[in-house]
Amino acid sequence: MPKLHQTPVLFAVAGALFVPPAAHAGHAVGQDGNWTFGGFGTLSAVHSGEKQADYAANPLNPGEAGATRDWSYAVDSRLGTQLTYNNGGHWSAVLQVVAERHLTHSWTPKVEWANVQYQVSPELSLRVGRIALPLFLSGDYRKASYALTSVRTPVELYSSLPISNSDGIDASYRWNAGAVKNTTQVLFGGTSVPLSDVTRVKAHKLAGISNTSTAGALTVRATAIEGELETPLLQELFSAIRQFGPQGEVLARRYEPDRKRATVLSIGASYDPGEWFVMGEIGRVNARSMLGDKTAGYVSGGYRLGSFTPYTTFSKVVANTPNRVAGLDLSTLPPPYAPAARRLNMELNGLLSMIAEQDSTSLGLRWDAASNAAVKLQFDHVRPRSGTSGTLSNIQPGYRYGRSFGVFSASVDFVF
Amino acid sequence: MGAFSMIRKLLCCLLLALLAGPAAAAELVVVVSARSPITALRAEQVADIFLSEATRFPDGGEVVALDLPIGSPLRDDFYLKVANRTPALMKAYWTKRIFTGRGQPPRELPSSQAVRKLVADNPTLIGYIDRSALDASVRPVLVVH
Q: With A174 labelled, which of A1, A46, A353, B120 sits at a CA distance of 20 to 30 A?
């Protein structure tokens, strides 16, 4: 079957590349087309005190801090470039390519966005192609870390839904209600993310609405997104569980990750009058499977002293469903089947213990060292909870549950 | 009418004094074309236009902002006073807008004179210039202290 989800992307890339460059500048403003090239990048080094697992900012971009390496450059480091074309009228196109570490252990640059925009009026714009998902307060620009005060967005919330773009269409409308300026965005699309060289997780029929309101120094963003996940993982486990009759069927249906409707609801606010800022956000990500139903949030604040910004964050994620279940009822099974059922129960509970429950406290300092570069130092005290391994990955055999650890990060973010 | 012209002179002096502001501070005026129907704007309205948060004048006409070069003292002063943002915060602001594909910063011109010249010719444009560059071709709509 053709990869339908890539069609809008190809269309947009073609659009971005083959729109003929307009005549050189020199006409009146807004009359001529123009190309803009820019980019962003982060170079970071991260050290984790937990040596039996790896600390990562995002499950799709695994860091290697802890078990794999003493100091990892893979947690936050990335390079992004962006080419924009504006025809001087209603049309524009953007192509953004980002190189960062992927689950497939490569740093191959990937097309983050490729879309064509038609500005119907100053208020209404339509886009088609690969588009940023309007997730969370900083979801659209989290990869351009220069725009963040901290080294990275809080992992408890942002790694709950690691995808950052969707292939499809969106419409964005600006409107004012008194002194409150609003932008409402609706989107429809889908996405496909490689988990390994052979497996991909796909989201179909992604539909979402997001509204951002600003009034003076206050910004509030609320988002609701729903989609159907196609996660061809653990099929053997769930077909084995199904061998155990009706109770196996019920259990498999409840926890298998494939063909499940996933919902994300989030609301966040920031207040930034200039000399200081506070922000907070809460979101619920429900995958209706062993991937979990989680609620996560954080509060963060900072004070700007010249080119230095000390900041602090408290962040937390909890599971709304049990991290441990009874599983198949062994007492109703003929004794010879019990050991197999017990093994499946253990396997299922092993998966459920990976649904993150964790909180962390961070202290950091941002230094705007140059006009387009910022140096950041950050210390996180991370506490995985409720017998889970939190947001850690690459759990080693000697990992001890319930142990808190420290993470130290130093990064340089730049834009050009 | 002696009294009338007296009042006019007084008002003129007052306006000049207002435009001049404290002698030591940089003197910035936000200008539109003398042909524009716009006569005055509030600092928040100007900030919205320069931050691409608003794409129309309060009367509904489309508006395009013109900027001075990055690093120019006038520019730093303008954003600090009108938008309460340091150069680093402005850079972070545009990083968010650019790398979400949601717009580009205003076009930059080399000097107050260059801004005045373009603004004078086009009622959809708005710029900020050094008060000393002010002439009859443009209308000040906000004095930035």
A: B120
Domain map of chain A by residue range?
Answer: 4-24+31-415
What is the token pair recorded at A166? 């969707």
Question: Is the model's pTM score more than 0.90?
Answer: no
What's the CA gap between A400 and A392, in Å, rounded? 12
Question: Which has the closest alpha carbon to A132: A80, A55, A85, A90?
Answer: A80
Chain A closest CA to B30's CA: distance in Å?
Answer: 18
CATH superfamily of A4-24+31-415: Porin (2.40.160.10)
Please determine, for residue A132, whether its predicted confidence score (pLDDT) is greater than 60.
Answer: yes
Chain-centroid distance of CA A68 in Å reads 23
The predicted pLDDT at position B26 comes to 61
B70 → chain A, closest CA residue:
A371
Contact B124, B61 (CB under 8 A): yes
Model confidence over A19-71: pLDDT tens digits? Answer: 443 333 333 344 467 899 999 999 999 999 999 999 999 888 888 999 999 99
The pLDDT > 90 percentage for chain A reads: 70
All residues of chain B having their beta carbon less than 8 Å from the beta carbon of residue A368 are: 88
Q: How close, in Å, is residue B119 to chain A by CA atoms?
A: 10
Distance in angstroms (rounded) separating the CA atoms of residues B29 and A215: 25
Ordered DSSP codes for A140-192: GGTTSGGGSSSSSS-HHHHTTS---EEEEEEEEEEEEETTEEEEEEEEEEEEE
With CB atoms and an 8 Å threshold, state whether A146 touches B95. Answer: yes
Mean pLDDT of A408-413: 98
CA angle A195, A151, A135 (to 5 degrees): 55
Cα(A81)–Cα(A92) distance, integer angstroms: 17
Mean pLDDT of A165-187: 94
**Tokens representing A79?**
């390079």
What stretches in chain B show pLDDT beneath 70? 1-26
Q: Which of A8-12, A47-51, A256-260, B24-28 has the lowest mean pLDDT?
A: A8-12
Helix (H, G, I), strand (E, B) or coil at A236: helix
Topology of domain B24-144, CATH? D-Maltodextrin-Binding Protein; domain 2 (3.40.190)
Beta-strand ranges (E) seen in chain B are 28-33, 64-67, 107-108, 125-130, 138-144
A146 touches chain B (CB under 8 A): yes
> By the 8 A CB rule, do A63 and A54 touch?
yes
Nearest to A96 by CA among A184, A193, A12, A210: A12
